[in-house]
Specification:
Elements: H1 12-32, H2 37-73, H3 76-107, H4 133-139, H5 145-151, H6 154-171, H7 176-198, H8 200-215, H9 224-250, H10 254-271, H11 274-289, H12 293-306, H13 309-325, H14 332-347, H15 355-366, H16 374-406, H17 412-416
Helix pairs in contact: 1-8, 1-10, 2-6, 2-7, 2-8, 2-11, 2-12, 3-9, 3-12, 3-13, 3-14, 3-16, 9-13, 9-16, 10-11, 10-16, 11-12, 11-16, 12-16, 13-14, 13-15, 13-16, 14-15, 15-16
Length: about 425
Amino acid sequence: MGGYMDRRKISRPVKILIGMGAGIAIGMLCSLLPESGILIRVFEIGGNLFLNLFKMIVVPVVLVSMILGVVSMNNPELLGRIGGKTLFWFASTTLVSSAMGIFFSLRFKIGEGTTLQQPQNAGVNLSGKVHSISETLINMVPSNMFQSVVESNMLQIIVIALILGIALAKISSKAPSLLAFLKEVDTLNLSIVNLILDLAPIGVFCLLAHTFACFGFKVLLPLSKYLLCFLGVSALLMFVIYPVLLILIAKVSPFRFYKRMFPVMLLAFSTSSSNAVLPTNINTLNEKIGVSKNISTFILSLGATINMNGTAIMQCCAAILIAQLYQIPLSLVQIIEIISMTLVASIGTAGMPSAGVLMLGLVLQSVGLPVSGIALILGVDRIVDMFRTVVNVTGDAVTAVLVSASEKKLDRSILES
């Protein structure tokens, strides 16, 4: 039996990589076969089932973990300080991402020289999808907390968890059984997440097989300059800006950080959903990087809703692409407005697949660009969505490390072990 390879020796990240490779290969093969419709449908069903499993556990994980996190802080001043630092880094990295997206899109003229014509009847219905800042602020506090949970409104759930956590912290000595119950539920949630992750290789296989079966590699050709610019700026953020922040601010090795985050990044790439990856991201930061559970839960839950660095890059690149394709000149004021509206749009972007392309309508409308231009990038958005989700999720994790280190709550022995 010496040649027999025990499955337990294959780590979960390796299994996910195998699933990704097999999914891409099978998907490409299906894209070349005319009679593969049934198989593509099977892949779609399998991928959606996997995503639904993650979505099922997101609300319980966020709600219970954040309540326990707030209770463990038991200090309104500490909570306010951590919240302030978190928002500062979220806003800073989003603005830097947007500025880089604008700069390199203009520098390389990603929309010039392209022969694409303005599509006919290509308007995208955005009704009910875009909210102003005032509406977003009002909607943060739910009128019905049960409706918020049922609808998985993450921003409202975060507010509910904060209120319940603060209230429970005040009576924790009088309700020890309630606190113990929540801790047991938190343990149960972690067990469910691990069960779902055991299915990740199959889920990733189905998701990627469906994507490449539908589009094939030809989807990368028509808008190659847009794709290359987005990927280049994303790489600059991921492998230059983030590492510099980790080294200078947190005194953390980027190599160790990315090594521990790699499975989370793979999952983000395959699911294209910040919310779906949220439980895994929280556990990874806590158990493999050394960020305390309460800080990681608070920051990552908030980040999955309002911190979208990859989405900011995409929206700025797409806005410049559409303006240049339609030969619409942009003034400096309009460019600044694009950057500002990208920050606003990120607050209302849900952590689900392709949500960023819907919020792109807000950015385009703010500077008078045709919303119908969104139709030009819809064909490649599934591919772009994979990469921007990796950037979004990694940016949340970097912020958690920066804030945790500044609060001296980063257990460096875990990361350095």
